[in-house]
Design brief:
By secondary structure, this protein is an all-alpha fold. It has helices at 22-38, 49-56, 60-71, 75-92, 101-108, 113-124, 128-138, 161-178. Among the domains are: 16-72; 80-141, Arc Repressor Mutant, subunit A, CATH 1.10.10.60. The longest helix is centred in the middle third of the chain and has 18 residues, at 75-92.
Protein backbone atom coordinates (compact mmCIF):
# COMPACT_ATOMS: atom_id res chain seq x y z
CA UNK A 1 0.00 0.00 0.00
CA UNK A 2 1.28 3.47 -0.83
CA UNK A 3 2.18 6.03 1.80
CA UNK A 4 -0.89 8.08 2.87
CA UNK A 5 -3.15 5.78 0.81
CA UNK A 6 -2.41 7.67 -2.39
CA UNK A 7 -3.46 5.86 -5.51
CA UNK A 8 -3.39 7.05 -9.08
CA UNK A 9 -6.78 7.86 -10.50
CA UNK A 10 -7.84 6.89 -13.97
CA UNK A 11 -9.11 9.76 -16.08
CA UNK A 12 -12.78 9.49 -16.89
CA UNK A 13 -14.45 10.97 -19.92
CA UNK A 14 -17.37 13.11 -18.78
CA UNK A 15 -19.94 14.01 -21.41
CA UNK A 16 -20.83 17.33 -19.76
CA UNK A 17 -17.32 18.72 -20.40
CA UNK A 18 -18.22 19.26 -24.04
CA UNK A 19 -21.35 21.23 -23.16
CA UNK A 20 -19.39 24.35 -22.12
CA UNK A 21 -18.34 26.50 -25.07
CA UNK A 22 -14.68 27.60 -25.31
CA UNK A 23 -15.69 31.25 -24.90
CA UNK A 24 -17.66 30.48 -21.76
CA UNK A 25 -14.75 28.37 -20.47
CA UNK A 26 -12.38 31.33 -20.93
CA UNK A 27 -14.71 33.60 -18.98
CA UNK A 28 -15.31 31.07 -16.21
CA UNK A 29 -11.60 30.24 -15.97
CA UNK A 30 -10.80 33.90 -15.38
CA UNK A 31 -13.60 34.25 -12.80
CA UNK A 32 -12.54 31.07 -10.99
CA UNK A 33 -8.93 32.24 -10.83
CA UNK A 34 -10.05 35.62 -9.51
CA UNK A 35 -12.17 34.14 -6.73
CA UNK A 36 -9.99 31.21 -5.69
CA UNK A 37 -6.53 32.77 -6.13
CA UNK A 38 -6.85 36.55 -6.06
CA UNK A 39 -9.46 36.63 -3.28
CA UNK A 40 -7.67 33.71 -1.59
CA UNK A 41 -10.86 31.72 -1.08
CA UNK A 42 -8.71 28.57 -0.97
CA UNK A 43 -7.95 29.54 2.65
CA UNK A 44 -11.61 29.03 3.56
CA UNK A 45 -12.13 25.46 4.74
CA UNK A 46 -15.82 25.62 3.87
CA UNK A 47 -15.53 27.13 0.39
CA UNK A 48 -16.85 24.37 -1.84
CA UNK A 49 -17.46 24.03 -5.56
CA UNK A 50 -21.13 24.55 -4.75
CA UNK A 51 -20.42 27.94 -3.12
CA UNK A 52 -18.22 28.92 -6.06
CA UNK A 53 -20.97 27.95 -8.51
CA UNK A 54 -23.51 30.01 -6.55
CA UNK A 55 -21.16 33.00 -6.56
CA UNK A 56 -20.68 32.68 -10.33
CA UNK A 57 -24.37 32.05 -11.02
CA UNK A 58 -23.82 28.63 -12.55
CA UNK A 59 -23.85 25.00 -11.46
CA UNK A 60 -21.17 22.67 -10.12
CA UNK A 61 -21.02 20.64 -13.33
CA UNK A 62 -19.83 23.69 -15.27
CA UNK A 63 -17.31 24.50 -12.54
CA UNK A 64 -16.09 20.92 -12.65
CA UNK A 65 -15.87 20.95 -16.46
CA UNK A 66 -13.84 24.17 -16.54
CA UNK A 67 -11.46 23.07 -13.78
CA UNK A 68 -10.98 19.65 -15.41
CA UNK A 69 -10.43 20.96 -18.94
CA UNK A 70 -8.42 24.11 -18.18
CA UNK A 71 -6.44 23.05 -15.10
CA UNK A 72 -6.32 19.27 -15.71
CA UNK A 73 -7.43 18.36 -12.20
CA UNK A 74 -10.56 18.19 -10.08
CA UNK A 75 -11.82 21.06 -7.92
CA UNK A 76 -10.36 19.73 -4.66
CA UNK A 77 -6.91 19.20 -6.20
CA UNK A 78 -7.08 22.67 -7.73
CA UNK A 79 -7.83 24.33 -4.39
CA UNK A 80 -5.30 22.16 -2.52
CA UNK A 81 -2.57 23.14 -5.00
CA UNK A 82 -2.84 26.78 -3.88
CA UNK A 83 -3.02 25.73 -0.23
CA UNK A 84 0.16 23.68 -0.64
CA UNK A 85 1.93 26.52 -2.48
CA UNK A 86 1.20 28.89 0.39
CA UNK A 87 2.11 26.25 2.99
CA UNK A 88 5.49 25.77 1.29
CA UNK A 89 6.13 29.51 1.61
CA UNK A 90 5.11 29.55 5.26
CA UNK A 91 7.17 26.48 6.13
CA UNK A 92 10.39 28.18 5.03
CA UNK A 93 9.53 31.68 6.26
CA UNK A 94 11.56 32.60 9.33
CA UNK A 95 8.53 34.29 10.89
CA UNK A 96 6.67 30.96 11.00
CA UNK A 97 9.51 28.65 12.06
CA UNK A 98 8.06 28.03 15.50
CA UNK A 99 4.55 27.30 14.21
CA UNK A 100 3.32 23.72 14.48
CA UNK A 101 2.16 21.85 11.37
CA UNK A 102 -1.44 22.02 12.57
CA UNK A 103 -1.21 25.81 12.71
CA UNK A 104 0.27 26.06 9.20
CA UNK A 105 -2.37 23.62 7.95
CA UNK A 106 -5.13 25.72 9.48
CA UNK A 107 -3.72 28.98 8.09
CA UNK A 108 -3.81 27.73 4.50
CA UNK A 109 -7.30 26.23 4.69
CA UNK A 110 -7.01 22.53 5.49
CA UNK A 111 -9.55 21.21 7.96
CA UNK A 112 -7.16 18.74 9.59
CA UNK A 113 -3.51 17.75 9.74
CA UNK A 114 -4.08 14.40 8.06
CA UNK A 115 -5.55 15.88 4.87
CA UNK A 116 -2.77 18.50 4.88
CA UNK A 117 -0.04 15.83 5.09
CA UNK A 118 -1.67 13.63 2.45
CA UNK A 119 -2.18 16.51 0.00
CA UNK A 120 1.29 17.92 0.62
CA UNK A 121 2.86 14.51 0.06
CA UNK A 122 0.81 13.98 -3.11
CA UNK A 123 1.93 17.33 -4.59
CA UNK A 124 5.50 17.69 -3.29
CA UNK A 125 6.55 14.06 -2.75
CA UNK A 126 7.70 14.58 0.86
CA UNK A 127 5.95 15.48 4.12
CA UNK A 128 5.68 19.12 5.24
CA UNK A 129 8.08 18.43 8.13
CA UNK A 130 10.64 16.90 5.76
CA UNK A 131 10.24 19.90 3.44
CA UNK A 132 10.93 22.32 6.30
CA UNK A 133 13.94 20.32 7.50
CA UNK A 134 15.45 20.08 3.99
CA UNK A 135 15.07 23.82 3.51
CA UNK A 136 16.70 24.53 6.89
CA UNK A 137 19.65 22.32 5.96
CA UNK A 138 20.11 24.22 2.69
CA UNK A 139 19.89 27.62 4.40
CA UNK A 140 21.61 27.48 7.79
CA UNK A 141 21.03 31.21 8.28
CA UNK A 142 17.31 30.45 8.51
CA UNK A 143 17.75 28.15 11.51
CA UNK A 144 16.28 29.43 14.69
CA UNK A 145 16.65 28.08 18.16
CA UNK A 146 13.76 25.86 19.00
CA UNK A 147 11.55 27.48 21.58
CA UNK A 148 8.21 26.14 22.58
CA UNK A 149 5.46 28.66 22.18
CA UNK A 150 2.87 28.66 24.88
CA UNK A 151 -0.57 28.53 23.41
CA UNK A 152 -3.16 30.72 25.04
CA UNK A 153 -5.83 28.07 24.82
CA UNK A 154 -3.65 25.17 26.00
CA UNK A 155 -4.26 24.04 29.58
CA UNK A 156 -1.30 24.13 31.93
CA UNK A 157 0.33 20.73 32.35
CA UNK A 158 1.05 19.31 35.77
CA UNK A 159 4.78 19.07 36.38
CA UNK A 160 4.58 16.23 38.89
CA UNK A 161 2.08 13.51 39.62
CA UNK A 162 1.47 14.48 43.25
CA UNK A 163 -0.31 17.82 42.54
CA UNK A 164 -2.46 16.12 39.88
CA UNK A 165 -3.51 13.44 42.37
CA UNK A 166 -4.23 16.11 44.96
CA UNK A 167 -6.43 18.00 42.50
CA UNK A 168 -8.37 14.83 41.65
CA UNK A 169 -8.83 13.98 45.32
CA UNK A 170 -9.99 17.54 45.99
CA UNK A 171 -12.48 17.32 43.12
CA UNK A 172 -13.85 14.03 44.48
CA UNK A 173 -14.30 15.51 47.96
CA UNK A 174 -16.15 18.50 46.51
CA UNK A 175 -18.41 16.16 44.54
CA UNK A 176 -19.20 14.09 47.67
CA UNK A 177 -20.03 17.18 49.73
CA UNK A 178 -22.49 18.37 47.09
CA UNK A 179 -24.40 15.09 47.28
Amino acid sequence: MAKYNITEKKEKVAAYRGLVSPKMMDEMQEKIMNIIVMQKKYRDKDYSAKKLAEELGTNTRYISAVVNVRFHMNYTSFVNKYRIDEAMSLLVDKRYQDYRMEEISDMVGFSNRQSFYASFFRVVGITPREYRMQHLKQHPSMQVTKTKRKRKDAPAKATTKAPARARKASARTKAKTKE
